[in-house]
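Deliverable D4.2, example record:
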Amino acid sequence: MTTLPIVQIGDPVLRRRAAEVPPETIASSELQTLIDRMIETMRAAPGVGLAAPQVGEARRIIVVEDPPAAIERLGEAQREERQRTDAFPLQVFINPRIRPLAGTGRTIFPEGCLSIPGYAGLVERPLDIEITYLDRRGIFHDWTPVHGWPARIIQHEMDHLDGILYTDKALPRSLMTDENMRRRTEGRSVSALIAELADEG
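Output generated by the structure prediction step:
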């Protein structure tokens, strides 16, 4: 299996609403091969999520995986703060829809994107969501709750399906290089960085 080129910011496919996948095509070798190549591309990057538009396919498909190795790169305090304590096994979501889970809060944390390499920004999102989707076997999954960091990954990838980039939602003045984001959040809470950015303004 070979990886696919990742489309970069400025390509029109990243700004279009992706098309629904006809359920009867899910079992096709063409679609299954696309899914396999998306997974390989995400892992090779490496990333924790990838949407079909990011490989030039304007279809409503996302793949998500937050493996233990990615979590272990964070300190314990960062894992707790970001609610990223457990691995999220590989999942494929076709024609997904999401909604915030009623009565839960919102959080602000750093995000980056394989289509905008080298940069990160602070983005506010719901902490808990529900998702409905078809899996790669074409099986329908009704509203399923997702919490914490996996919920953030899914929301980020869902935005790609609607032509939205995280930079459209990032807090003002929070966009910076990956290196500076790591330096300014290492061993510190995100709320401290938010306060610091406000003081800089």
